[in-house]
Design a protein that fits this description.
A hairpin with a 7-residue loop joins strand 1 and strand 2 (119-129). The radius of gyration is 40 Å and the shape is rod-shaped. A four-stranded antiparallel β-sheet has the order 1-2-4-3. The protein has 175 residues and is α+β, with helices and mostly antiparallel strands. It has two domains: 1-77; 81-174, 2-Layer Sandwich (Alpha-Beta Plaits), CATH 3.30.70.60. It is built from three helices and four strands. The chain is 58% helix and 26% strand.
Amino acid sequence: MQNVRRTVWLNIGFIALISIVFGVALYFMDREFLFRAGSVYADRSIIQGQAWSVGMLAVLKQAAPEAKRYEERLRLLLPAKDELLDFPRRLDGVSRAHQVSQTFSFRGNAVSPQGNEPGYIGFTIDAVGSYTNVVNFFRELEVKSTRFLVSIDSLDISRSDPQYRARAEGKVFFR
């Protein structure tokens, strides 16, 4: 009987030991499984992001020739720096069309183009004429001019009987 009891306790101890070892192994395997599942999830997110990036790259490569054409057209909208010598002649034509007498001068040094930013040079215009003609002169100069891109930074108009005097400072842009 004593022998049977001993065998039973040994078997119970052996089963308990195996259960504990199995439980510890399951615990560590579960932690490893959760770690790997998180890693797989993170890798899957990265792969989805890269797939989206590859898709966008394909779209951009497909649109590149069209963008190049637009870039060339936009580049042609800005005159070269040497072509700014024609700007005073353009002003003379516009002032005659609007019956405005004007004097023009470039001011300061030109700021060279940098990267995608165009270069520019400042100018000053003094104009004399009727109010409507002076306003139309500057409107055409800044808004309707197709050959030169002009920005008027300040415009002062004052009455000088019977006409109006205007002094404008601005920039003309070049490539």
